Amino acid sequence: MLCDRTIRKLLDSGKIGVDPLPTDECIQPASIDLRLGEWFISPWPQRLRFKLPAGEGVDVRPGECLLASTAETVRVPRDLIARVEGKSTFGRLFLQVHSTAGFIDPGFEGQITLELSNQGRSHLNLIVGAPICQISFEWLDGPADRPYGSAGINSHYQHQYGPTEASRLPSVEVIPL
Protein backbone atom coordinates (compact mmCIF):
# COMPACT_ATOMS: atom_id res chain seq x y z
CA MET A 1 0.00 0.00 0.00
CA LEU A 2 1.33 3.47 -0.82
CA CYS A 3 2.29 5.97 1.88
CA ASP A 4 1.62 9.72 1.80
CA ARG A 5 5.10 10.54 0.44
CA THR A 6 4.65 8.16 -2.53
CA ILE A 7 1.08 9.34 -3.13
CA ARG A 8 2.26 12.99 -3.26
CA LYS A 9 5.07 12.08 -5.67
CA LEU A 10 2.68 10.22 -8.00
CA LEU A 11 0.13 13.05 -7.85
CA ASP A 12 2.84 15.62 -8.63
CA SER A 13 4.10 13.58 -11.59
CA GLY A 14 0.56 13.08 -12.93
CA LYS A 15 0.76 9.29 -12.68
CA ILE A 16 -2.22 9.26 -10.27
CA GLY A 17 -5.00 11.71 -11.06
CA VAL A 18 -7.34 13.26 -8.50
CA ASP A 19 -9.06 16.32 -9.93
CA PRO A 20 -9.61 18.67 -8.31
CA LEU A 21 -7.35 17.89 -5.37
CA PRO A 22 -9.06 20.06 -2.72
CA THR A 23 -6.17 20.74 -0.31
CA ASP A 24 -2.90 19.19 0.78
CA GLU A 25 -4.70 18.25 4.01
CA CYS A 26 -6.76 15.67 2.11
CA ILE A 27 -3.64 13.51 1.79
CA GLN A 28 -3.67 11.20 4.78
CA PRO A 29 -0.86 8.83 5.93
CA ALA A 30 -1.87 6.14 3.39
CA SER A 31 -4.86 7.54 1.48
CA ILE A 32 -6.53 10.60 -0.02
CA ASP A 33 -9.82 11.93 1.35
CA LEU A 34 -12.49 12.32 -1.31
CA ARG A 35 -15.53 14.58 -0.99
CA LEU A 36 -19.23 13.98 -1.50
CA GLY A 37 -20.32 15.15 -4.94
CA GLU A 38 -23.43 17.14 -5.85
CA TRP A 39 -25.48 14.52 -7.75
CA PHE A 40 -27.64 11.82 -6.16
CA ILE A 41 -29.98 9.05 -7.25
CA SER A 42 -32.70 7.91 -4.88
CA PRO A 43 -33.99 4.55 -6.12
CA TRP A 44 -37.04 4.24 -3.86
CA PRO A 45 -39.98 4.68 -3.75
CA GLN A 46 -39.46 5.97 -7.28
CA ARG A 47 -36.23 6.69 -9.11
CA LEU A 48 -35.25 10.33 -8.57
CA ARG A 49 -32.05 12.02 -9.77
CA PHE A 50 -31.25 15.34 -8.11
CA LYS A 51 -28.45 17.84 -7.58
CA LEU A 52 -27.57 19.87 -4.49
CA PRO A 53 -25.14 22.81 -4.27
CA ALA A 54 -21.94 22.65 -2.21
CA GLY A 55 -22.65 23.11 1.49
CA GLU A 56 -26.22 21.78 1.27
CA GLY A 57 -27.14 18.54 2.98
CA VAL A 58 -29.00 15.44 1.93
CA ASP A 59 -30.95 13.61 4.62
CA VAL A 60 -30.46 9.84 4.69
CA ARG A 61 -33.03 8.18 6.94
CA PRO A 62 -32.47 4.88 8.74
CA GLY A 63 -32.63 2.03 6.24
CA GLU A 64 -32.48 4.41 3.27
CA CYS A 65 -30.05 4.01 0.38
CA LEU A 66 -28.77 6.56 -2.15
CA LEU A 67 -26.33 6.49 -5.00
CA ALA A 68 -23.91 9.42 -4.90
CA SER A 69 -20.47 10.10 -6.29
CA THR A 70 -17.22 11.67 -5.32
CA ALA A 71 -16.70 15.32 -6.24
CA GLU A 72 -13.32 14.34 -7.64
CA THR A 73 -12.49 12.52 -10.84
CA VAL A 74 -9.93 9.79 -10.21
CA ARG A 75 -7.43 8.28 -12.66
CA VAL A 76 -5.68 5.02 -11.72
CA PRO A 77 -2.62 4.04 -13.80
CA ARG A 78 -2.09 0.58 -15.33
CA ASP A 79 0.27 -0.57 -12.57
CA LEU A 80 -1.86 0.33 -9.53
CA ILE A 81 -5.21 -0.66 -8.06
CA ALA A 82 -7.20 1.51 -5.69
CA ARG A 83 -9.68 0.88 -2.90
CA VAL A 84 -12.35 3.19 -1.57
CA GLU A 85 -13.36 2.98 2.07
CA GLY A 86 -15.65 5.04 4.24
CA LYS A 87 -14.21 7.48 6.75
CA SER A 88 -14.25 6.17 10.32
CA THR A 89 -16.41 9.04 11.58
CA PHE A 90 -19.19 8.03 9.18
CA GLY A 91 -18.69 4.36 10.00
CA ARG A 92 -19.28 5.17 13.66
CA LEU A 93 -22.58 6.73 12.62
CA PHE A 94 -23.39 3.46 10.79
CA LEU A 95 -23.18 4.96 7.30
CA GLN A 96 -22.05 2.40 4.75
CA VAL A 97 -20.28 4.18 1.87
CA HIS A 98 -20.17 1.22 -0.51
CA SER A 99 -21.84 -2.16 -0.49
CA THR A 100 -19.32 -4.27 -2.36
CA ALA A 101 -17.83 -1.97 -4.97
CA GLY A 102 -14.76 -0.57 -3.21
CA PHE A 103 -12.25 -2.07 -5.66
CA ILE A 104 -11.02 0.18 -8.50
CA ASP A 105 -9.25 -1.46 -11.44
CA PRO A 106 -6.04 -0.27 -13.05
CA GLY A 107 -6.90 2.07 -15.92
CA PHE A 108 -10.15 3.37 -14.37
CA GLU A 109 -10.93 7.03 -14.93
CA GLY A 110 -14.02 8.84 -13.65
CA GLN A 111 -15.90 9.82 -10.56
CA ILE A 112 -16.49 7.03 -8.09
CA THR A 113 -20.09 6.00 -7.46
CA LEU A 114 -20.86 5.57 -3.77
CA GLU A 115 -23.61 3.23 -2.55
CA LEU A 116 -24.66 5.11 0.60
CA SER A 117 -26.73 3.18 3.12
CA ASN A 118 -27.80 4.33 6.58
CA GLN A 119 -27.54 1.23 8.77
CA GLY A 120 -28.19 3.16 11.99
CA ARG A 121 -31.26 4.43 13.79
CA SER A 122 -30.70 8.17 13.34
CA HIS A 123 -31.19 10.47 10.36
CA LEU A 124 -27.87 11.50 8.82
CA ASN A 125 -27.47 14.82 7.04
CA LEU A 126 -24.59 14.47 4.57
CA ILE A 127 -23.07 17.73 3.36
CA VAL A 128 -22.08 18.13 -0.29
CA GLY A 129 -18.34 18.79 -0.42
CA ALA A 130 -17.55 17.12 2.92
CA PRO A 131 -14.90 14.37 3.03
CA ILE A 132 -16.93 11.15 2.94
CA CYS A 133 -14.50 8.45 1.89
CA GLN A 134 -10.83 7.76 1.29
CA ILE A 135 -8.95 6.13 -1.55
CA SER A 136 -5.79 4.08 -1.09
CA PHE A 137 -3.46 2.63 -3.73
CA GLU A 138 -1.46 -0.56 -4.13
CA TRP A 139 1.19 -1.54 -6.66
CA LEU A 140 0.57 -4.44 -9.03
CA ASP A 141 3.45 -6.76 -9.87
CA GLY A 142 3.42 -5.17 -13.34
CA PRO A 143 1.18 -3.04 -15.54
CA ALA A 144 -2.13 -4.63 -16.53
CA ASP A 145 -2.15 -5.90 -20.11
CA ARG A 146 -5.84 -5.05 -20.45
CA PRO A 147 -6.60 -2.18 -18.05
CA TYR A 148 -10.13 -1.04 -17.31
CA GLY A 149 -11.64 0.45 -20.44
CA SER A 150 -9.90 -2.00 -22.79
CA ALA A 151 -11.94 -3.56 -25.58
CA GLY A 152 -13.66 -6.82 -24.72
CA ILE A 153 -13.69 -6.63 -20.92
CA ASN A 154 -17.08 -4.92 -20.44
CA SER A 155 -15.89 -1.80 -18.61
CA HIS A 156 -19.37 -0.37 -17.99
CA TYR A 157 -18.34 2.57 -15.84
CA GLN A 158 -15.28 4.08 -17.53
CA HIS A 159 -15.48 7.92 -17.64
CA GLN A 160 -18.62 8.02 -15.47
CA TYR A 161 -19.68 11.41 -14.17
CA GLY A 162 -22.02 11.56 -11.21
CA PRO A 163 -23.63 8.48 -9.67
CA THR A 164 -24.11 5.71 -12.19
CA GLU A 165 -26.77 3.05 -11.81
CA ALA A 166 -26.01 -0.64 -12.29
CA SER A 167 -25.61 -1.93 -15.81
CA ARG A 168 -28.28 -4.46 -16.62
CA LEU A 169 -26.92 -7.99 -16.55
CA PRO A 170 -28.78 -10.93 -18.12
CA SER A 171 -28.31 -12.96 -14.91
CA VAL A 172 -29.85 -10.33 -12.59
CA GLU A 173 -33.48 -9.30 -12.49
CA VAL A 174 -34.37 -6.19 -10.49
CA ILE A 175 -37.94 -6.31 -9.20
CA PRO A 176 -39.21 -2.98 -7.79
CA LEU A 177 -41.01 -3.12 -4.43
What is this structure's SSE topology?
Elements: H1 4-13, E1 17-19, E2 32-42, E3 48-51, E4 57-60, E5 65-75, E6 80-86, H2 88-91, E7 95-96, E8 103-104, E9 109-118, E10 124-127, E11 131-139
Antiparallel strand pairs: 1-5, 2-3, 2-5, 2-11, 4-10, 5-9, 6-8, 6-11, 7-9
Radius of gyration using CA atoms only? 16 Å
Major sheet description? 9 strands, antiparallel
User: How many strand elements?
Assistant: 11
- DSSP strand content: 35-45%
Helical proportion, percent range: under 10%
Quick check: average pLDDT? 91
Euclidean distance between termini CA atoms: 41 Å
Return the CATH architecture: Distorted Sandwich
Query: How many domains would you count in the coordinates?
Result: 1
CATH superfamily: Deoxyuridine triphosphatase (dUTPase)
Order of helices and strands: HEEEEEEHEEEEE
CATH fold description: Deoxyuridine 5'-Triphosphate Nucleotidohydrolase, Chain A
- According to CATH, what is the class? Mainly Beta
Low-confidence stretches: none
Question: In words, what does this structure look like?
Answer:
It is a single chain. This protein has 177 residues and is mainly β. It has one domain: Deoxyuridine triphosphatase (dUTPase) (Deoxyuridine 5'-Triphosphate Nucleotidohydrolase, Chain A, Distorted Sandwich). It has two helices and eleven strands; from the N terminus they run αββββββαβββββ. Strands 1, 2, 3, 5, 6, 7, 8, 9 and 11 form a nine-stranded antiparallel β-sheet that branches. The longest helix is centred in the first third of the chain and has 10 residues, at 4-13. It is globular and about 45 Å long.
